[in-house]
Design goal:
236 residues, alpha+beta, two-stranded antiparallel sheet
Length: 236
């Protein structure tokens, strides 16, 4: 989730673990709504159509998780678009945050700097060992690093060519589902490229083993405090 401060051009990147348990809307075999239940936030997307309906359901689930916080837009990019994203900035140099990928490729040892390209980006962003409990959290750290490193590369690319943002939007369109137009997309990307800084935090909580799958249970007090600090200003 991106929080964009239009006055400072700062952007906060909020990471939501895929196994976070929250209220999601569920549906029956014929597509009829069965109401809401507590389940993994990632399932909200699966109950949709893989397009705008999936995005809308995820948008609602994330809003529920964040105490009804309004979310104005969504953008979903499928896995085929990841190489295009990386190649749009000429490669993304990441610092590998943990050893969760080293068994697949030794160059991805913890602390190593690796430049991702169109061939290895999906492995870095997507791979996890499903036999290891909470492997999604280790993968999430790699995803956070990719987002950070991509932002840095995009700043450099934008400084060289301000038309880069419009080109990126057009290039990603075959892989993307969004309710944002070119202007809004460009404004957010320009803020990422020009802003004073990009901060980030992860929804606070604890990973546990459920009956069938890993679960992530939110620390409500800590989450509430983070939301206040990120989205609100004290008035006197």
């Amino acid at each position: 989730l991106l929080s964009w401060d239009r006055t400072t051009d700062d952007v906060s990147v909020i990471t939501i673990p895929r196994d976070t348990i929250t209220q999601i809307e569920v549906f029956g075999p014929s597509g009829e709504s069965l109401g809401t239940t507590e389940d993994h936030v990632s399932l909200s997307y699966a109950y949709g159509d893989g397009s705008h309906e999936s995005c809308r359901l995820t948008q609602e689930a994330v809003s529920n998780l964040l105490y009804g916080l309004p979310i104005q837009g969504y953008c979903s990019i499928n896995m085929d678009g990841l190489p295009t994203l990386t190649e749009s900035v000429g490669g993304v140099t990441v610092t590998v945050p943990n050893d969760s990928l080293e068994s697949v490729d030794p160059k991805f040892r913890e602390g190593a700097q690796v430049t991702l390209d169109g061939d290895n980006t999906e492995t870095f962003v997507r791979y996890r060992d499903t036999e290891v409990s909470q492997s999604a959290l280790a993968r999430m750290e790699r995803q956070q690093e990719y987002i950070r490193a991509y932002g840095e590369a995009a700043k450099t690319r934008f400084a060289e060519d301000p038309g880069f943002i419009t080109e990126l939007y057009n290039t990603l369109q075959p892989y993307m589902v969004t309710n944002m137009g070119t202007d809004e997309f460009a404004s957010i990307m320009q803020s990422l490229s020009e802003g004073a800084g990009t901060e980030g935090w992860t929804v606070p909580g604890e990973g546990t083993e459920g009956k069938s799958y890993d679960e992530y249970h939110v620390d409500d007090d800590a989450l509430y405090e983070n939301i206040i600090q990120t989205f609100y200003e004290e008035t006197r």
